[in-house]
Design goal:
With 440 residues, the chain is mainly α. The chain has 19 helices and 2 strands. A two-stranded parallel ribbon has the order 1-2.
Length: 440
């Protein structure tokens, strides 16, 4: 029987299953990050939280993400994708249930850090798995689906928070509700296979061939990838480290304003012109929907328009939207929703590329490690900004905070213009061989 090239395989049920259930980690990240913002509306008077405690709780999950991504990306490259992304989902569910019973700010902070660690572990594992099971044509769409699922999780969290807002002890059910999607994701992931490219990279050729034959009913061949053991320090050589810095820069500039908006969305929307509390949570649902919708056209534009033009244009629009919020005094709710909607819609391109670039630009043996390290670097900025946001709002006002967000987005625009590479139409092997060059 003649072997078929992996890039020529049709998009099948196994591809869809890996894409769907592999995106469970980003879904849960969006869910648990946003649900704390709504729950804080009830927890603030109950636990007597001041601005510093609120900032710490908002940043707690991000600290955990920093630890989880940097550590477990490397572990995934060493021991494989499948085993790790079953273990971490179980841990997320158990910690979510335990969070329902906290009785002090410190207990809640510990739980938020722990859940951040296990969610952070899932990111490099699942994104590498999805990338390595996608061919060149499908890759942008599959990774775009990951980004979209983050926003789906965030939107679901806002809806759950809205429904439970007036429920007695609603915050407990909000924080524990992540257990339900954890169970569903675990069932969906249970019989998924190991990554074929990881098996080949580790020299387990016969195991990979048997798995491909079982999944697709015919022999499958891949581009030649030499057997190589994972060496973490490869990330810091002359070829890879510039890409680490580039992707970390655009990732940071995209997520710092976005995480601030999501973590404290109800409070921000309230300060910008809409009532706080239940109505502000509903306003955040509208914003979440625009974030999610922005990913849909970006999935297709990445192949038709290309990676670089989409990144540059998106950062330009995002910068303008945040600048309007900072410069217009006392904007009405219409302006608030419109500006946030523009920012959210155009964040779809960078939101996908922050996952797509590192999975394309690094070889299989350090792919998950690269995603983990880059995500950890970006989280340094988000931890600081999320912790500082309540303090900045109370001292300098929401308009100044929006202008700071616009400046951060402007930095992302400049970095994109100078260095963004074009990987459209390249196989993983080809993309992994290009070098970072200044474009202007």
């Amino acid at each position: 029987m003649q072997a078929k090239n992996f890039d020529d395989l049709r998009f099948s049920s196994i591809h869809r299953r890996i894409m769907l259930w592999g995106s469970g980690g980003p879904f849960l990240d969006g869910y648990v990050l946003v649900i704390i913002g709504v729950a804080l509306e009830q927890l603030t008077p109950l636990l007597k939280l001041d601005a510093q405690w609120i900032g710490l709780l908002g940043a707690g999950t991000l600290v955990g993400l920093f630890i989880g991504t940097s550590l477990f990306g490397y572990i995934s490259d060493r021991v494989g994708r499948r085993k790790m992304f079953l273990i971490d989902i179980v841990a997320i569910g158990l910690i979510s249930v335990a969070t329902m019973f906290v009785s002090s700010p410190m207990e809640l902070l510990v739980m938020r850090v722990l859940i951040g660690i296990v969610i952070g572990a899932d990111y490099p594992i699942a994104t590498s798995m999805i990338t390595e099971f996608s061919n060149t044509r499908q890759r942008a769409f599959a990774v775009g689906f990951i980004a979209a699922m983050w926003y789906v999780g965030a939107t679901c969290a806002n809806l759950v928070g809205y429904w439970l807002y007036d429920y007695p002890d609603g915050w407990r059910w909000m924080l524990g509700s992540a257990f339900i999607p954890c169970v569903m994701i675990l069932i969906g992931r249970f019989d998924l296979p190991e990554s074929p490219r990881w098996l080949l990279r580790k020299g387990r050729v016969e195991e990979c061939n048997a798995m491909m034959l079982k999944l697709f009913g015919e022999p499958v061949v891949f581009e030649e990838e030499p057997q190589q053991q994972t060496k973490f320090m490869q990330l810091f050589n002359r070829r890879h480290f510039p890409f680490v810095l580039f992707v970390a820069a655009i990732w940071t500039c995209q997520v710092v304003p976005m995480f601030a908006i999501y973590t404290f969305g109800p409070q921000i929307v309230g300060l910008l012109g809409w009532d706080q509390g239940e109505n502000a949570a509903l306003g955040n649902v509208v914003i979440s929907l625009f974030f999610m919708l922005g990913c849909i056209p970006a999935m297709y534009w990445l192949n038709s328009m290309g990676r670089r033009p989409l990144l540059v244009g998106s950062f330009a629009m995002m910068t303008g939207a945040l600048a309007i919020l900072g410069l217009v005094d006392n904007p009405g709710i219409g302006w608030v929703v419109l500006a946030f909607a523009v920012y959210a819609f155009f964040s779809g391109g960078p939101g996908i590329l922050q996952w797509l670039y590192p999975n394309e630009l690094f070889p299989t043996d350090i792919r998950a490690s690269a995603v983990g390290v880059i995500m950890s670097i970006s989280r340094v900025g988000t931890v600081i900004s999320t912790w500082a946001l309540p303090v900045f709002i109370s001292r300098y006002g929401i308009s100044t905070v929006m202008l700071i967000g616009a400046f951060i987005s402007l930095v992302g625009l400049i970095v994109s213009i100078l260095f963004a590479p074009e990987t459209r139409g390249l196989s993983l092997t080809q993309a992994g061989n290009i070098s970072l060059q200044r474009k202007v």
